[in-house]
Structures are given as structure tokens and as C-alpha cells.
Amino acid sequence: MRSSIPTFRLYGESRNETAGLWLHCETIPERSRLHGWEIRPHRHETFFQVLHISSGSGEALVNGRYRPFEHSTAIFVPPGEVHGFRFSRDIEGFVLTALSDRLTAPMRSSTAITAFADKARLIRLASDAAPARDVVDTIARIHAELDGHRAGRMVLLEALVAGLIVALMRADGPALAREHPNERDASRIAALYDLVAAHFRERRPVSFYAAELGLSEAHLNRICRAGTGGSVQALVNARLVEAATRDLIFTPTPVQGIAYSLGFSDPAYFNRFFRKQTGRTPGALRASERPALAAT
Description:
Layout: E1 23-27, H1 28-32, E2 38-42, E3 47-55, E4 58-62, E5 65-69, E6 73-77, E7 83-87, E8 92-99, H2 104-109, H3 111-116, E9 121-124, H4 130-147, H5 153-171, H6 173-179, H7 181-199, H8 206-213, H9 217-228, H10 232-250, H11 255-261, H12 267-278, H13 282-295
Antiparallel strand pairs: 1-8, 2-7, 3-6, 3-8, 4-5, 4-7, 6-9
Helix pairs in contact: 4-5, 6-7, 7-9, 10-13
């Protein structure tokens, strides 16, 4: 049965017709119109594909069965996956095809991406969700870059394709969490880092971060200790120290001003906090590090 499934680089093109390409992006109607709005079952041996359906509907053959889809859907097809499509005549969107080695680096850097890329996926894109907007914007930008010939476009396209994979993985987060329970905690820690980065200057209590993630304080601390080796408060403190150290070394802002900018109402308390965390007062760190910086 497997040998009867045709293998293409791009659907309907033989192997030597697209030699040398690592990335291709076109509108869905461009190719599907030529084939009566149906892409018969086939596979790509060394390519993965991403489709974004902006309007219209259809059915996708993924993971061994046809599944219906409608507008605001992304479809990810890994290399070697038998797939096919039946599109409505009003279909609009993009299809991106890229060499599978462009998945290697993202998969090595993230177990969540490895879990995401292990099978074909239909992803419903909620219009009010940031990852969904990232998917839509990134694939449109890839198409625009390929359509032009601006300097440095291949370097940019490498980064955009990696960013698209990350955006797809994030948009498919709930499904990944169900399939890989351990990845759920990893995604929660990633969300916690984002929350801390956005709110550490506001001196929020741990209860705030727990509520934002829909967890109890105790549960969030357990996840945080398992994933980072420290508590939520330790994560916040580390972010405060990082920001304070950067300002002390690279800006002329007085220590009192830095304290206020980090949400401390009492500069004396900021001094005690910083010394407890680093073993040095803010003034001592500035006095020792800035001359070294000036000498470089």
C-alpha cells in the first residue's frame, strides 16, 4: 500500500523540478485549482508543510483519516506523513513547504517542539490569542519575503520559519498538554517566565502569578521548583537582581532611582534586598564593575 502512494517535493511536481529549493510558499488556490480543488493522498519524503486557511473550508487527510476544517485553521504535516486535501472553491490561505532539516534546530532546543512535530496536526486559531496572530502574521511575511528579493532575505527566512514552528506549537498548546502531561508543566513554567518579565517591577505576590495561571500557590511552587530548582519568589528575585545589575552598570541612574523603578518604595530596603541576594550593596557593585567596563 505504501509504495502506491506517490512521493512529491511539491504536489504534482517530480523530484528534479524543484531541485535546490529549501522553502516554497504559495496561495492554496494556485495549486489546488489546477487539480480540481483536490490534492490526492501523497507524501513528501524530506519536506514538512504548513497550511493556513484564512477562508473557505474542506477536509484534510491526516493521521490516517479525513478530518473537516474551516477558516482560521492551521495544518502541520511532518515529513513522510501521507496527506491529502479536499478544498471548497472559495478556499483562501497559504501553503508553505520547507526542507525537514529546518525542524532539526528547533527540535533540539525544545522538547515541546519535538512533541509537536511528531505527527500531523489541525490547529484551530483563536483570533484573540497571541500565538494564533503570530502564525498568521509570520506565514504572510514569509510569503512576502519569498516574493521579493531584498538583501538578507534568506537569513531572515531561516528565522521566520523557526518562529513559525514555535508559534504553531504554542497555538496547539492545549492539545500538546493532553498528549504529553510533562509538557504541560514546561508550558506553565514558560508562561510563568513571561508573567514575571511583564510584572516583576510591580512587586506582585506569588498569589498573583498562581491566579494568572489558574493554579494554587503550592502547586505553582512545586512546578517551579521541579523545573527551575527554585521557588516562584526566587524567580522573581533573580529577575529583579538582573534588572538592577544592568541599570547599576550601564546607566548613570542613582541607586534611589533604580530602587523606585523596580517597585521598591524604600531605597534602604532595596539596598538590604540586593545585598542579601548578591553579597554586595548596589553601590559596591557599581563601584567595582563600572571601571572594568570602561577599561574594555
